[in-house]
Amino acid sequence: MKHWYITGTDTEIGKTRVSCQLLQELRRQGFSTVAYKPVASGAVDTGDGWRNDDALQLIHASQAKIAYNVVNPWCFEEAVAPHLLAEEAGVDIDTAKMAEIVSRKPADVAVIEGVGGWLAPLDTGTSQADMARALNAGVILVVGMRLGCINHALLSVGRILDDGLPLLGWVANQIDPEMSRYQDNIDTLKARIKQPLLATIAWEENQPDFSINAIIN
In sequence order, what are the beta bridge partners of 171? Predict the structure, then answer.
């Protein structure tokens, strides 16, 4: 079973969109999938508990249908940095617990979506590197293609590698439909990031081509 941890260069750069499209591609190729969103902030009360839209989208895209509180064990109402809410609630994000949860549901690939950018903490003492390490997960970086993305992408790549995590590849996700020199920016990143570009997703593209053979085999 492979574990892929999806992180991004920032918040609101399409991690959930990419995760769901990746899950669909894996299923199209015949792989079994399961998805998780360990920590989420920004939720609504559905009557059955607090529910985060990103986690709900992952459940919908995943082949394995499991209970919401298993997919998203730590869910906070307010849409702010989760480590602040965890501290206020006296909650610790337990990476060992999450690793045990993921181990219960075998699948060919488990897609685990992080929060914000790579350095956004999960609680006051737990980083996303800690979570990915506990899950024995390779990291996929979603680069939000907009002005400033080169700096954010290269800083993120450097820190992921400095943290000792395997960077499997990156995805260029266009979040600014009017971005100037879009392809030139992608070419610049391809020349500077050694890990493979797994997909280029144009604005509102729903069925991108993923090059995942190298990381699935």
Answer: 142, 199
CA nearest neighbour of 145 among 203, 101, 62: 203
- What is the rounded CA–CA span in Å between residue 4 and residue 19? 10
**2-216 has which CATH code?**
3.40.50.300
pLDDT in tens, 84-102: 999 999 999 999 999 999 9
Residue 199's contacts (CB-CB under 8 Å, 6 or more residues apart) are 18, 21, 22, 171, 172, 208, 209, 210, 211
Write out the catalytic residue numbers. 37
Identify the burial level of 191 via C-beta atoms within 10 angstroms of its C-beta, where 0-12 means exposed, 13-18 middle and 19 or more buried.
exposed
Closest listed residue to residue 132, CA positions, set 149, 145, 120, 144: 120
List of E strands, the chain: 2-8, 33-36, 39-41, 44-45, 50-51, 74-76, 109-117, 138-145, 167-174, 197-201
Alpha carbon dihedral 118, 32, 211, 60, in 10-degree steps, equals -60
Q: What is the sign, positive or negative, of the torsion defined by CA atoms of 56, 60, 62, 68? A: positive
The Cα 106–Cα 178 span in angstroms is: 42
Whether the full predicted model's pTM is greater than 0.70, yes or no, is yes
Digit-coded pLDDT (tens) for 170-194? 999 999 999 999 999 999 999 999 9
Pairing outcome for strands 167-174 and 138-145: parallel
Helix (H, G, I), strand (E, B) or coil at 101: helix
DSSP letter string over 138-179? EEEEEEEESTTHHHHHHHHHHHHHHTT--EEEEEEEE--TT-
